[in-house]
Amino acid sequence: MNSVVDAAWLKEHLSDEDLVVGDVRGPNAHMRGHIPGSRPLVLGSPPPGADEATLTALAQEIALRLRRHGITGRERLVLVDRGDGVGAMPTLQMAELAGHPNVAVLVGGMAAWDGELAEGTVELEPVREAELHANVGAMPTRQEIADRLGDESLVLLDIRTPDEFTGRRGSPCDPRQGHIPGARLVELGDLFDGPGQPASPERVRAVVGLPEGAAVVAYCHSGSRSALATLALRAAGYEARNYPGSWHEWSRHDDLPLER
To answer: Are 100 and 132 in contact, with CB atoms under 8 Å apart?
Structure first.
């Protein structure tokens, strides 16, 4: 299963025994109307700044939450949000941190689903055992990025505006302005055809200027725009991860270099 699926694929595979649909909109929205067989799944959002020890502890907590939702790591897990990708991508990153090896996002979320809907609450069936092993590499830290500056096997993509990138007009809450050395500027709008709808893989690869399969880490100011960018990047075939701390964290560490 790819890390991005569409509604047609989900309809075809919805009855597969090894498929689980996690609705990240919250229990109330799920109760009012959801894809048949789906279950509410709330895992929280990636922390804005963390080291490896913190992420290891968080991964264990997320694995516990997954088990409470009956998720073992052996299934194919498809995440569904309202349609803009804002809810699904942080949840995907948390599930991958916990060690789930097979997670995907439904492109367009509930807005793209034209099949029948079910209503009412769904009883969760917790499991005691799971095949979930912490994968701290799923969530880039400032230390990893600092250690890999100049590493040609990893490309940094800055998902901000040109003014933020150059430091001319960044967020006033950041003590320093500019960008991480070596990062390439990519504007979020160039990666999407509409809300939650990634542009074609060909267009995304033309914008990014990297061959399919390249390893990239995206960042923005606080990890939100870059989380969405990661959706489009994965849909285009990139090995993409989101740096949650982004510039908000990086700018607060005077020992970390920057460019303007």
So the answer is: yes
Residue 159 contacts residue 230 (beta carbons within 8 Å): no
Q: Is 10 helix (H, G, I), strand (E, B) or coil?
A: helix
Report d(CA 59, CA 61) in Å as an integer.
5
Interval 185-205: pLDDT, tens:
999 999 999 989 999 999 999
259 in a structural domain:
no
Q: What is the pLDDT of residues 44-82, one digit of tens each?
A: 988 888 888 999 999 999 999 999 999 999 999 999 999
R_g of the chain, CA atoms, integer Å:
18
CATH of the domain at 226: 3.40.250.10
- The Cβ-side half-sphere exposure at 73, using a 13 Å CA radius, reads 21
Cα dihedral 159, 164, 167, 170, rounded to 10, equals: -130
Q: How are strands ordered across the β-sheet holding 239-242?
A: 184-185, 155-158, 215-219, 239-242
Helix (H) or strand (E) holding 241: strand 239-242
Residues 123 and 246 in one domain: no
To the question of pTM greater than 0.90 for the whole model, the response is yes
Query: In terms of domains, do 56 and 144 share one?
Result: no
